[in-house]
Amino acid sequence: MSTHALTPDAPPGNDPERRQWLLATGAAGGVLAAGVAVPFVSSFAPSERAKAMGAAVEVDLSDLAPGALKTVEWRGKPVWIQRRTPEMIQALQGHDEQLADPGSVRDELPEALRNPGRSSRPELFVAVGICTHLGCSPTAVAAGSGNPSVGAEWAGGFFCPCHGSTFDLAGRVFKNKPAPTNLEIPPHRYLSDSRVVIGEADKA
To answer: Are 142 and 172 contained in the same domain?
Structure first.
């Protein structure tokens, strides 16, 4: 019976075939990990649509007639811009006792907007056109409209048809209404008499 001499196994670190196999599988695993990591990391980057949703909006006011209201979209919300007439500005006075927050204390508005018109320019009113109750969109109701929902003494403003909240021409909510706060005033700044940027505030 023939016998063969037994030789000890070579140490793992000295096995050329094993070393090549480890290098090959390691490289393949690295490529796979990189392929998975790129989409994962990119998922944290904001999409172009998300960026656009938060972008400021520049609005031309040259075609906004006295008394007229223009609606633009900012961050998916309707934003009103109204050019108030002298009569509308006058109507903002004399009814503070009927309002829930006439001085906009709860709104934490910048000092420049804490006035009866809630605006840095009395003739221009900028507000988010969403009721602060449950998110319905109020409608503008002019003085003398005869709308029974606002009463005979109505001096002009906004009425929410969903639950009856009423706001004056500066978006201040009347007392004993479902809406808890005044209409939101978005950050905005004027580039000129005919252009406003919604989404950027004036520098203090």
So the answer is: yes
| 163 has catalytic annotation | yes
Q: Is the pTM of this model over 0.85?
A: no
The one catalytic residue in 4, 95, 133, 163 is: 163
What contacts 190, CB < 8 A, 6 or more positions away? 120, 121, 124, 196, 197
Amino acid at 32: L
Quick one: 153 and 89 in the same domain?
A: yes
What residues in the chain have per-residue pLDDT under 50?
Answer: 1-8, 10, 29, 31-46, 51
- Does some domain include residue 59? yes
Q: Which of 200, 202, 196, 199 is nearest to 81 (CA)?
A: 196
What residue numbers bound the domain in which 32 lies?
12-42
